Amino acid sequence: MTRLPAALPAGKMPGMTLALPLIPDTAAVSRRAILDVPADDLKAWLADRRQPPMRAKQVRRQLLAARATAFADMTDLPKGLRDDLTEHFTPFGSTVVQHLKSGDDTHKLLVRLADGKLIECVLIQNDARATACVSTQVGCGMGCVFCASGLNGVARNLTAGEIVEQLILLRNLTDPNTTREDRAPRLTHIVVMGMGEPLANLENLLDALAVAGDKDGLGIGQRHVTISTVGLPAKIRKLADADKQYHLAVSLHAPNDELRNRIVPTNVQTGIPDILAAADYYFETTGRQVTYEYVVLGKVNDQPEHAHELVDLLRRRKAFVNLIPWNDVAGLTYRRPTDDDLRGFIDTLRDGGVSVQVRRRKGADIDAACGQLRREAEEKPKNSED
Ligand code: SAH
């Protein structure tokens, strides 16, 4: 029986239950995960067995579109090939080691990668949307002082296959036969807001999103994908030049460099003006309005002078501000804003002509623990993990 880590206080998780892993923990580490086998290698492997290259596409379609979780279930493939695939590859390199489900049908998965490293991903379901929140790195190297994901630095980038596997694991939690009007039968949206800095792993992310967008893949349109970045100007420009319609969210979090340097350490190298110029370029190139995220840290960045400065920065831009009241992180001493401070901040922005909303707290019980499931699990002795 999986147990909840001690750092997740029961009071923060009303209605949360533990469910069984979706895929049995039997993936052999020695076999390669098929989604990470380069297309040419797989075609060569198939050719060795006198199989046409289109078999590679069939396998992908089975995993991505038909919800197969084993080669044996891929009945449009010859039996001998299914056996051969089972012997040489594994359909998934990742296994779910913890599955938390909150009262509002938000699911959070703690996922163990083939090399034993742990990441988190989340499914949020509401208003006939099913949104996958995925990680792009093990840990994070950006060091934002209020965030749990970066407390132990970054271990490595995720492969494209590892990013796609998160999407599949989460998609498999949606109900294809749902008759509820407020539920989607498949994934409809992706937010790249899990662990890691997406633009520090841009190539693999773009490969993964191409699979997600493919009609034979998950069929999620580019305009339904949001990429959230700490603000790496050169990479923002590169993403703009990739000629995609992804929605960009920039984690601004402070209206001046002095404050931003303190809470977002990478700002020392970049600075707000360069980030805004790159974001403007993104808007000019793609036509897509940029969202600015602003984690609201009580008494740190939520005072009237901060709101006025933010208005000055953004007023003349076609921008949108998403306020995220800080979620508690064990061991950190920031606080959430008071209702009055938050209201005053919003009013100042609106009076200044800046569009703003407060991020809705779907699955707030799970959000509160963002990045911490993994930290707890990594600090536990191996044999008590499950
Ligand atoms: N590296 C990316 C993705 C981070 S997660 C980025 O920096 O944008 C998505 C958002 O959640 C970011 O804006 C991040 O700063 C914010 N965030 C991280 N920890 C948080 C916390 N404890 N409470 C509220 N927001 C947090």
Task: Describe what this molecule looks like in 3D.
With 386 residues, the protein is an alpha/beta fold. It contains 13 helices and 15 strands. It starts with 16 loop residues before the first strand and ends in a 7-residue tail after the last helix. Residues 1-15, 23-29 and 381-386 have low confidence and may be disordered. S-adenosyl-L-homocysteine binds next to strand 11 and strand 13.
In short:
The protein is α/β, with parallel strands linked by helices.
SSE pattern, N- to C-terminal: EEHHHEEEEEEEHEHEHEHHHEHEHEHH
Number of helices: 13
Alpha carbon gap, first and last residue: 7 Å
How is the largest sheet built, in terms of strand order?
1-4-5-6-7-10-11-12-13-14-15
- Report the count of strand segments: 15
Rg over CA atoms, rounded to whole Å, is 21 Å
Low-confidence stretches: 1-15, 23-29, 381-386
**Principal-axis shape:** elongated
Bound molecules: S-adenosyl-L-homocysteine
Write down the overall mean pLDDT.
89
Q: Give the DSSP E fraction (strand runs of 2 or more residues).
A: 15-25%
**Biggest sheet record:** 11 strands, mixed
Q: Which helices and strands appear, and what pairs or packs with what?
A:
Elements (H helix, E strand, L loop, with lengths): L16 E2 L13 E2 L5 H10 L5 H11 L14 H10 E2 L4 E7 L5 E6 L5 E9 L2 E5 L3 E3 L14 E4 L2 H12 L17 E4 L9 H12 L11 E5 L3 H9 L5 E5 L5 H7 L3 H4 L1 H15 L3 E7 L7 H11 L4 E7 L13 H13 L3 E4 L5 H4 L4 H8 L7
The protein binds S-adenosyl-L-homocysteine.
The site of S-adenosyl-L-homocysteine has 16 residues, from β11 and β13.
